[in-house]
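Case study 2.
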Amino acid sequence: MTVVDNLGASSTESFQVIVINRTYHITWKIASHGLFWQYPQYLDEEESIQISREITYCNMTKLIFNLTWDDDIPILGAPNDEFMFNVTSPMGPSQEESDDDQAISISFPTSGDMNEVPEDFDMGAETIEALEQILADMYTSDNGIGEWEVNITLVDAPGIINGQIDTDEGNDFIMRVSCLYYIPEITVVD
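Prediction:
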């Protein structure tokens, strides 16, 4: 390196600069977040509701849609209110289930519309901040991000009270959505 002052005098000196690259071990942890889209709702028999929401989590590995209800007027003690539950992803795949057992669960991924968790590995970087930027650039995926459509129908709500058939006119339900996604965990190796 040479330094020159304002009068033209100079001094030159040589030295070595050592850049220390640390090695980090990257593992991937699955995190979960509950999305309460629809609070307790009520549907009349043969009535439907359509719900549309945008999900914006990166690195999603799974979405789980749960529909639950209590049959308030069962026939002979057995639940019998039948719901139909349909979920369509922003990438197009759709799933539909119907049941009278007071719970339906629909899970994605289907057909590669979510993300696989990356393999663990070691990587060198000057700083943890630099490594985090590299990981964000290389391992952030938007699969699954977008508008999700849900359709819920109370197909049938039969019931008997005091010997009168079909006094059940509808039912309450709750829908919950859980989002699973991967995040990096970084440890220093050396």
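The chain has a mean pLDDT of 87.
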